[in-house]
Structure formats: structure tokens, C-alpha cells
Write a structure and sequence with these properties.
- The complex is a heterodimer of chains A (793) and B (281).
- Chain A is 28% helix and 22% strand.
- With 793 residues, chain A is an alpha+beta fold.
- Chain A has three domains: 20-26 and 491-636, 2-Layer Sandwich (Aldehyde Oxidoreductase, domain 4), CATH 3.30.365; 39-137 and 206-258 and 263-296, Aldehyde Oxidoreductase, domain 3, CATH 3.90.1170; 303-475 and 640-792, Aldehyde oxidase/xanthine dehydrogenase, molybdopterin binding domain (Aldehyde Oxidoreductase, domain 4).
- In chain A, the strands form seven sheets. A seven-stranded mixed sheet of chain A has the order 3-5-1-12-9-10-11, with helices on both faces. A five-stranded mixed sheet of chain A has the order 7-15-14-13-8. Chain A has a four-stranded mixed sheet with strand order 18-26-27-28, with helices on both faces.
- In chain A, helix 16 (557-584) packs across helix 17 and helix 18 packs across helix 19.
- In chain A, 56% of the residues are buried.
- Chain B is α+β, with helices and mostly antiparallel strands.
- Chain B has three domains: 7-52, Uridine Diphospho-n-acetylenolpyruvylglucosamine Reductase, domain 2, CATH 3.30.43; 57-172, 2-Layer Sandwich (Uridine Diphospho-n-acetylenolpyruvylglucosamine Reductase, domain 3); 178-280, CO dehydrogenase flavoprotein, C-terminal domain (Enolase-like, domain 1).
- Helix content of chain B is 32%, strand content 26%.
- Chain B is built from eleven helices and 14 strands.
- Classes of the chains: A alpha+beta (793), B alpha+beta (281).
- At the A-B interface, helix 3, helix 9 and helix 20 of A face helix 11 of B.
Chain lengths: 793, 281
């Protein structure tokens, strides 16, 4: 009889985060906290023009300024172009993006020179003395204007700003079920066509970017400390751009204060700092200023969308047809051309359609480059289909909830249902999730209140909006990525090792920067291997300590990195079982493993895994031929995406006289599969929903006719805070993913993907009795009021 | 983030501050710093010497001066918001002080600094204007008083000379008059897209001595002369009609928050609401 008391299961517990004491006491170590003796400061001189030829740069005054050690232009600091890793097809235009532009500036903020000095102030003061002979050119910042005849051309070598299209029926490796065309030609179909513009967004991680480079000249070794989500990818891309041997380049992501995709990038400043350190043989540091970051750090989202739905008269959705025009900004950064594709398969949402077509066109403009921003492609898709479903409901005179219920992919199709766009969804319970949301909302009571408010003639009207959404995350199966022309793989790695003092060291290839994997991975190991949660140490974010990995983005930390960890744990158990059998002198099959103990079945003889870890380390008495050490590494390549989903509802009150919106309720029922730590999951949903609401109601980055960013500081860029947000009401369903042994799916982007259409649908619903069918986003008071005036006309 | 270099002096008294203003090169007073420092960090302001008057405790606090309250120039917004005398005798200014910026701003920013900055989007200049406050300034030639109506010359431009310090702001007690300040903004911490302040008395069912002023409807805070004229002596049901005149004589800006036309619309709506609210108090 096994008598050992098993530890309480850790998975599913609301464990307090191991990361938090340092974060909330200010003990964290960010890039800006790092200082190296002899370190120099770098300041980047940026273009004040959106589009201007450089006819000369005079550094002499800057070089003569106090404390200045060096100054460079693109001509004098030798570097290769930055790596672009996703040339989506043969027509994708990917102009070389030099860290310091030589010929012309293509956006306000384009780096043109750098000054290196003994202090930050000296570097900045001297940077003001750099004289650039500019020849301003006409600029274009609007997607449609950039495609018009006679538009200023961002990259002259192409003669056009059209950076290439991706057409699903031509370019996707997964066959579409049916072309959409016949459904739209069928006279029995009800068809609608909706057009939306998604404004340009600025990510706003709490910590701005920063880079410190340390040099060991005698060894030819470099250490790059960067506020990055992707130390491993950055190591590879910097090797290519800067010509430093990859094995001698160490990239460290110390504590990183948020990313949301903005730190999923190979930035000019990373390459500039490494190259200067190489040239001068001295450590250097660059820290981004906030308003500098507004032009220098990637932007997200901006696109025009056209979505068409074809449905039967009784509301059975049959086909979806989508066209997008997406702003690249001035350059293709690491995965810019592929961002819209990350939503390509999702424009039918969780509705079972037959016909599907999708295509997008990438467009160069004189703006800061766009790239992955939390959700990347999937918020865009969710916005289009969820707004369009409400439009279809209005067209059909149906209740939007009823229309959704009617069209969900039904439970009996799962597991592994191949949707019309050609990908295969692992598992879901769309209807159950919506019913839970509807129950929390009290839908019928709400509709009654809405009606009575309208009938009272009140200027404060009520609306509700829904978003029944899905995403594909856990990016991604490497073979799929290959077929999509992404040049790297989608695996990740984990190493588990029992240390002689009885603790377990975990090395993970994902690079958390707020997601809490130090905690959640400890929970996984605690349960799987039967050790104490506190005895697990999770290390990450340093390519010298964790050489293998592909970092954190696309909600992949748990669904790829966590599964790699689980698989490494299985190898540990397998090896420990062999040692246990050897020590207990029994057959492996006679052992059962639970709570950290290998017990000989039917006896009280057992060996604990920690003791076996010590045996493996001392190697005094191992089975013949066995390698010492209880350690295992696993590289996990996911066989499919994971498919989280949920049902969100938003209730708003709109002041019809001022257009101002009061968020009364926000309900989120999410299904991210098995939840390792519900508190961490809820934290992700809270942050994501806040960001999604911000996108719907507050945030936009616009440019004036000369290409100057108008929302260039935190004063004008409208980040909402706690006073602007309601208390979120959360619940969940659990539909385990059959793709991986833990049944997990991922939750990092869920709220951001779900929230925007729920909010805008609510605003439109509130005003629908006045004839309003669309409100531009962000739905500012003026836009709302204008929509009311237009509807009244 | 990184201002141009500057010298820094701490004033030990008002006289010392005046001397520093006279003797230092390109000096600039700093009190709470919440308007000046952001400009310096963007290098839009590059003073040669900051003269810090933040430690002049004599200039802090609210005093009962008979028919008015004497508010020290260095009184912080939070202190004004929570001051018992202010809440009792001039609840409008106490309330409005609680709407300025966010808690950090309110714990640093001062009424004198807010007035001297002369930002037409700020709340307290409008409140002082609608209350017919008197601003007390000291300079090399001694003390003088300036009526709020003559204080705001233009965009970030006031009657305060470069070598003067606001020592006190005198606001009349509002007595039984009703009051309101409606600050329209998307986020709690924003400047007013439009703000409307109203102080309204009534007698025997008609409106007496209505005063209305706007935030962010022009180059300076503005009194709504047409509305005031239309309301004076009018019956209470004349408010809606009078509010339609709200944007007369205004010149609202167009910016990322709103167009001028929308501000005009908001001014009309909010004027009606503010006057009604004042009448209900």
C-alpha cells in the first residue's frame, strides 16, 4: 500500500505569482537598471519629416560637443539590413530595411544618425547639433490615397505602394471548401456588404524599449540586454544584420515590462547598439523616450476591411467573402506582411459556412511600420465577422443572439472539424459558452429595460453588443509555417533537471514578460513530477542559460512551451522509473508513479523522485550503461493550432445629446481549455479586454497631411485607465484541446480579440432605433454624435 | 524625457524668489511643476534657471477673509478640493479642484501655477473667471490686484509680468447661489474638451445674476455673455432657449479631441445642463 500523502494538486489552483514580490516592491531589473563600467550612451537622430531625401549629414558640430565620443550615419556605420522573416509569397515586396537610412527618410522617426557620448544628456544635447540637409518630399499616410495614381511612392524602386496581395484561393496550403462566388450570385440568398476602417494603434507597453550591449573584446563575445519578447529570435536576426558569430552572441531579456507584440521585433536600435559596441569595443546603452517610442516602436492594426455575407432568408449563413487593405507603414519589419494573414481563416468566426474567400493587399505608407500587436490579425477578423453578424441580423430582422445560435459549428462536429477556410478546429462548445454569457447578462430583462428607456424619451439610451469569437493560437506547426512562407519554425523547448539539493530547474524557451509562466510552469511540474511548487525554479530569457527556444508571442507560451515542458517531464518520469526499478529491484512495470513516489504495486516499498534525482546525479549506483543525471529536454512542435473561444457581452449607455458612452457592464465567458492558474487566466482576460475596449472607444494614432503623428504623446493618445472601465464579470467553460496532453489552448490575446466588436455592437445597438448602423472606431463622442445626426438626416 | 540643462534655485521667501527672478538668467518659477516639467521634458520649454517656490508655506491654504476666501497661491488642488472653508463658502471651486488631472497632479499642482500657466483648457481659470475672483500678485514694485476678467490675455498668456508671483487668489463667497461645473472629457484625467461653469441665483421663480463661463472654447477662459444676458431676470423655463446662445462669441479650437463645431454643440448642451443643475442646488 502506498501510504505517502500526496501533495494537493497544483494545476487549477489560484497560486499567487512567484514573480510578483519583485515587481511590486520595485526590485525588478529592467534594461534601464543595467549599468556597465565604461558604458557610453547612444542617442538616435530621427527624421522630422515623413518623407524627405537626405542630401547630406554634417556631424562635425555634434562631434565637437561636450562628452561626445563618436557619431555615425548610415554611410559610416556598417550594418546589413534588418531581417524580415515572412515574405508571404513571390509578389511580396520586401525592400531592404537598413537600421540607419541612407537615401531618404520614409516616416517621421526614421533613424538617420546616432551620437555616442559619455552621458545620456550629452548624447541628446549633441544630437540636436547634427545637421541634416533635408529635401522634403510629398508624403502619403492614407492606405487608399497611397494606392491612387500619382501618389508619392515610399519605395521608388517599385513604382507603386502596392506591396503585394495574398489570395487564399491561390496562396493557402489548405484547400477552401467552396468558393464563395456562387452563393453571392444565388438570388435566393440575402447578402450584405460591410466596410470598416480599423484605426492605427500604438501598443504602449509600460516599459519603453531599451538596449544595453556589453563587450568582451578579448573573447569576441557580446551580450545584448534588450527589452524584448524574443531573445532567441533576436540572437539570430542580429547575427545576420551585424555579422557577429551567433555562438558568441548572448541575448538577455531581463525583466521586461510588457510587450503586446511591440517587443516582438528586430529593431534598428538593437542592431545600431550592437554595431557601435563592436566598432568602439565599449559597452553602450540606449533607452527609448516615451514620445520617441510613439514613432520608433511598431504600430498595429490599421486596415480597411470589406466583408460580405450570404445567408438564407431564415438566417443560415452560407458564405463569407473578405478583402482587406492593410497599412505596412514605411517598412516590412520582422513579420509585417503576414499579420493580416494571421486572421485569414477566421473571418467566418465560429459559424459553419460553406463558401469562403479571403484576400488582402499590403500597402506602403509614410508612417511608422506596423507589425504584430496583441492578437495580430485575429482581432481584425473577429471585428469584421462579429460586426457583420449584427448587420445581417438587422437585415433579416432577427435577434443577433438568435442568429448566432443558429449558425454555430455544432458540438457534434468536434473534435477536429475542418472549417470552410480549410483549417481544423480542435474542440469547442460555442453554444454552451454563449448560453452562460446570456444567463449572466439577463438578456430578456435587459431588452425590456432598453425598450422602456427608449419609450420614456430619455437622452440616455441603452445597448448591448455580443462577440462570440474564436482564435487560432499556439503559433504554430512548423510545416504549416513553411507552407505560409514563414522562414522559421514554430516549436519550442524545455529542459527539466533535478538538482542535487532537491530542487528542480526548468529552462523554458518561451520568454515571459508579464504572462506568469514562472508560476504556471511551476504548477505543471509540481503536479506532473510530484514535487513542491516552491521547489521548482523556472529560468528563461537568457540565450546563454536557455539556448533553445522561440520565445513568447501568439498566445504560445503555455500551448507550445508548456507542452514542451510536459513532454520533458514525461521523459524524466521514464528515466526515474528505470532508476527506481534498479534500486527497488523490481520490474519497471511493477511500479506505479504518484505524488512523486514510485511504489512497487501492492507493497509499501517506494522511492521518491527527488532521491532518485540525487542518485542520478551522484551516479554511484545506476543501471549499467545509463547516463548520469535526471534531466531531459524536449523540443515540441505542435501538430495543430489551438483554438480558444468565448462569448463576450457589453452593455453601454449612450448620451444621445453629447455622444458620450458609459460602459455599464462587460461580461466575458472564455474557453481556453484547461486552466493552469485561474487567477493568471483572469488577469490576461482583464488586460486583454481593457485593451480591446481601448481600441473600440479610445485609441487611435492619426497623421496630419504632412505625415506628422497627431497623437504623439500620452496626453493626446487616449489610453484609458481604471476610471474609464467597468468591473469585468468573468466566467468560463472548459473544453480541453485534444491536441496536447494537458488540454490547454492559450489565453494571452483573448480579450483583445473579443472585445472591440462587442463594444461597438453595443453602441450601434443603443442607437439602432434612431437608424444608426455603423459608428467609426474609436467611437469617440463626436463620432457617435455625428452618426446620430447622419441617421436623422 | 530628458530636458535641456538648467540651473535650479530654491526660494526661501517671496522676496527671495523675486530677487532670483530679477537676477538669474532666463528664470522660470516652478511650483507643482505639472505644466512646466512636461514641456521641459519635450524640450518645448528651456528655462535657464528654475526658481522653486514650492516650499513657501505661507502661500498655502485657505483663509476666511469676510466676504471672500483668500486662497494662497501655492494651495494644491487636492488641498483646495478637501478644504472645509472652501467647501462651505465656495463649493464650486472646491469641487472643480477635484476634477483637475489625476491624483498625482492634484497633489502637486497649485492654483497659482494653474492661473499663471494660462491654459484655456484648464479648469481653475474658468472657475476664477465665473466667480469674479481677484488675483493678487507681488513684483519688484510691490503688490497689485488683477481682476480675473482682465487676467487672461490670450493663449498661455496672462496679465502676470515675468517678474511677478501670484501670492493669493480672492474668491467671493457664493452664498445661496446655485452652482455647477460640467467638465466634458473622455477620460477622468483629461483636460476638458469643453467645460461649463455656472453660478446662478434665483428669486421668486426667476433667475437672478446668472454667471456662466467656458473652458476650452477659445484662446482664454470665456464668459458666456449672451447666455448671461438671456438668463438675467428670465423665468426658469427660459434656460433651454438661453443655452442655444452658448457658443456666441466663442472661438473653440479643433484638435484631436473634437472639432470646433462639436465643441460649439457641446457648449450649448452643457450650458443648459449646468444652469439647470445650478438652479437645482
Amino acid at each position: 500500500m502506498a501510504t505517502t500523502e500526496r501533495p494537493a494538486p497544483s494545476i487549477g489552483q489560484r497560486k499567487q505569482r512567484k514573480e510578483d514580490p519583485e515587481l511590486i516592491t520595485g526590485a525588478s531589473r529592467y534594461v534601464d537598471d543595467i549599468s556597465i563600467p565604461g558604458m557610453l550612451w547612444v542617442y538616435v537622430v530621427r527624421s522630422p519629416f515623413a518623407h524627405a531625401r537626405i542630401n547630406g549629414i554634417d556631424l562635425s558640430e555634434a562631434l565637437a560637443a561636450p562628452g561626445v565620443v563618436a557619431a555615425y550615419t548610415g554611410e559610416t556605420l556598417e550594418m546589413g539590413p534588418l531581417v524580415m522573416a515572412w515574405p508571404i509569397n513571390d509578389e511580396c515586396k520586401a525592400p531592404a530595411h537598413l537600421p540607419l537610412t541612407k537615401d531618404k527618410a520614409r516616416y517621421v522617426g526614421d533613424p538617420v544618425a546616432v551620437v555616442v557620448a559619455d552621458s545620456r544628456v550629452h548624447a541628446k544635447d549633441a544630437a540636436e547639433l547634427v545637421q541634416v540637409e533635408w529635401e522634403p518630399l510629398p508624403a502619403v499616410t492614407d492606405i487608399k490615397e497611397a494606392l491612387a495614381d500619382g501618389a508619392p511612392i515610399v519605395h521608388e524602386e517599385y513604382g507603386t505602394n502596392d506591396a503585394g496581395s495574398w489570395i487564399m484561393s491561390r496562396d493557402s496550403p489548405a484547400p477552401i471548401r467552396n468558393p464563395s462566388g456562387p452563393y453571392f450570385e444565388d438570388p435566393d440568398m440575402v447578402t450584405i456588404k460591410e466596410e470598416y476602417y480599423l484605426s492605427r494603434l500604438i501598443p504602449n507597453a509600460m516599459e519603453p524599449r531599451g538596449v544595453v550591449v556589453d563587450v568582451n573584446s578579448s573573447m569576441g563575445e557580446y551580450t545584448v540586454y534588450s527589452a524584448t519578447q524574443i531573445p532567441h529570435i533576436l540572437r539570430t536576426t542580429l547575427t545576420i544584420t551585424c555579422g557577429v558569430p551567433e555562438a558568441k552572441l548572448r541575448v538577455v531579456a531581463p525583466d521586461v515590462g510588457g510587450g503586446f507584440g511591440s517587443k516582438l521585433e528586430a529593431y534598428p536600435e538593437d542592431a545600431i547598439c550592437l554595431t557601435i559596441a563592436k566598432v568602439l569595443g565599449r559597452p553602450v546603452k540606449w533607452i527609448e523616450e516615451r514620445s520617441e517610442g510613439y514613432v520608433a516602436t511598431l504600430h498595429g492594426r490599421e486596415m480597411y476591411q470589406q466583408i460580405e455575407l450570404a445567408s438564407t432568408k431564415d438566417g443560415i449563413l452560407k458564405a463569407v467573402r473578405v478583402k482587406l487593405w492593410a497599412s505596412m507603414g514605411a517598412h516590412m519589419r520582422i513579420i509585417t506582411p503576414g499579420i493580416p494573414m494571421l486572421g485569414a481563416w477566421l473571418y467566418a468566426g465560429c459559424y459553419d459556412v460553406e463558401g469562403y474567400d479571403f484576400e488582402y493587399t499590403n500597402v506602403f505608407t509614410n508612417n511608422t511600420f506596423t507589425d504584430a500587436y496583441r492578437g495580430a490579425g485575429r482581432p481584425e477578423a473577429t471585428y469584421a465577422i462579429e460586426r457583420a453578424m449584427d448587420a445581417l441580423a438587422r437585415e433579416l430582422g432577427m435577434d443577433p443572439v438568435e442568429l448566432r445560435r443558429k449558425n454555430f459549428i455544432s458540438d457534434d462536429k468536434f473534435p477536429n472539424y475542418t472549417i470552410a477556410s480549410g483549417l481544423t478546429i480542435d474542440s469547442a462548445n460555442y453554444a454552451g459558452t454563449l448560453e452562460k454569457c446570456i444567463g449572466m447578462l439577463g438578456y430578456e430583462k435587459f431588452r425590456a429595460e432598453q425598450k422602456s428607456r427608449r419609450e420614456s424619451g430619455s437622452t440616455k439610451v441603452l445597448g448591448v453588443g455580443f462577440s462570440t469569437w474564436l482564435e487560432m493560437c499556439g503559433i504554430a506547426p512548423s510545416r504549416v509555417l513553411a507552407a505560409l512562407k514563414y522562414i522559421a519554425g514554430g516549436w519550442d523547448a524545455a529542459t527539466v533537471e533535478f538538482l542535487p539539493t532537491g530542487t528542480v530547474r526548468v529552462l523554458t524557451g518561451v520568454s515571459p514578460h508579464g504572462q506568469g509562466e514562472v508560476t504556471t510552469f511551476s504548477q505543471i511540474v509540481a503536479d506532473q513530477l510530484g514535487v513542491d511548487f516552491d521547489d521548482v525554479e523556472v529560468l528563461h530569457g537568457d540565450t546563454q542559460i536557455v539556448p533553445l527556444g522561440l520565445d513568447t508571442y501568439g498566445s504560445r507560451g503555455l500551448s507550445v512551451g508548456g507542452v514542451a515542458l510536459w513532454k520533458a517531464g514525461e521523459k524524466i518520469i521514464e528515466k526515474a522509473r528505470k532508476i527506481a526499478a534498479h534500486e527497488l529491484e523490481c520490474a519497471e512495470e511493477d511500479l506505479e508513479f504518484a505524488g512523486g513516489d514510485f511504489t512497487v504495486k501492492g507493497t509499501d516499498r517506494s522511492a521518491n523522485i527527488k532521491a532518485l534525482g540525487f542518485s542520478a546525479w551522484s551516479a554511484h549506483n545506476l543501471p549499467d550503461g545509463m547516463e548520469p543525471g535526471l534531466t531531459a529536454t524536449h523540443l515540441y512542435d505542435p501538430p495543430n493550432f489551438s483554438w480558444p473561444n468565448g462569448a463576450h457581452a457589453c452593455v453601454v449607455e449612450v448620451d444621445t445629446e453629447t455622444g458620450s458612452i458609459d460602459l455599464l457592464r462587460y461580461i466575458a465567458v472564455d474557453d481556453c481549455g484547461v486552466r493552469i492558474n485561474p487567477m493568471v487566466v483572469e488577469g490576461q482576460v482583464h488586460g486583454g479586454v481593457a485593451q480591446g475596449i481601448a481600441e473600440a472607444l479610445f485609441e487611435e494614432a492619426t497623421y496630419d497631411s504632412e505625415g506628422n503623428l497627431q497623437h504623439g504623446t500620452m496626453t493626446t493618445y487616449m489610453l484609458p485607465g481604471p476610471p474609464e472601465l467597468p468591473s469585468f464579470e468573468l466566467d468560463h467553460t472548459v473544453t480541453p484541446s485534444p491536441t496536447n496532453p494537458m488540454g490547454v489552448k492559450g489565453v494571452g490575446e483573448a480579450g483583445t480579440i473579443a472585445a472591440p466588436p462587442a463594444v461597438i455592437n453595443a453602441v450601434v445597438d443603443a442607437l439602432s432605433h434612431l437608424g444608426v448602423t455603423n459608428v467609426g472606431r474609436p467611437a469617440t463622442p463626436e463620432r457617435v454624435w455625428n452618426a446620430i445626426q447622419e441617421a436623422r438626416r | 524625457m530628458i530636458p535641456a540643462s538648467f540651473d535650479y534655485e530654491v526660494a526661501e521667501s517671496v522676496d527671495h524668489a523675486l530677487e532670483l527672478l530679477r537676477t538669474k538668467e532666463d528664470p522660470k518659477l516652478i511650483a507643482g511643476g505639472h505644466s512646466l516639467l512636461p514641456l521641459m521634458k519635450l524640450r518645448l520649454a528651456r528655462p535657464g534657471t528654475l526658481v522653486d517656490i514650492g516650499r513657501l508655506g505661507d502661500l498655502r491654504g485657505v483663509r476666511d477673509a469676510g466676504d471672500h476666501l483668500a486662497i494662497g497661491g501655492l494651495t494644491r488642488h487636492h488641498d483646495l478640493n478637501t478644504d472645509a472653508l472652501a467647501r462651505q463658502h465656495c463649493p464650486l471651486i472646491a469641487y472643480a479642484a477635484g476634477l483637475v488631472g489625476d491624483p498625482q497632479v492634484r497633489h502637486r499642482g497649485t492654483i497659482g501655477g494653474s492661473l499663471a500657466h494660462g491654459d484655456p483648457a484648464s479648469d481653475l481659470p474658468t472657475i476664477c473667471l465665473v466667480l469674479d475672483a481677484v488675483i493678487v500678485a507681488r513684483g519688484p514694485g510691490g503688490e497689485r490686484t488683477i481682476d480675473a476678467s482682465g487676467f487672461f490675455n490670450g493663449f498661455f498668456d496672462t496679465a502676470l509680468a515675468e517678474d511677478e508671483i501670484i501670492t493669493e487668489v480672492r474668491v467671493p463667497k457664493t452664498g445661496s447661489a446655485g452652482w455647477s461645473y460640467l467638465k466634458f472629457r473622455q477620460r477622468a484625467l483629461d483636460w476638458a474638451t469643453v467645460g461649463v461653469a455656472a453660478v446662478v441665483g434665483s428669486s421668486h421663480g426667476s433667475i437672478q445674476g446668472a454667471k456662466v463661463a467656458f473652458t476650452n472654447m477659445g484662446q482664454t477662459p470665456l464668459r458666456a455673455a449672451a447666455v448671461e444676458a438671456a438668463l438675467d431676470g428670465a423665468p426658469r423655463d427660459a434656460v433651454a432657449q438661453a443655452a442655444q446662445k452658448a457658443d456666441e462669441g466663442t472661438d473653440p479650437p479643433s484638435d484631436t479631441w473634437a472639432t470646433g463645431d462639436f465643441r460649439r454643440h457641446l457648449a450649448r448642451v452643457l450650458t443648459g445642463r449646468a444652469v439647470e443643475e445650478a438652479l437645482s442646488r
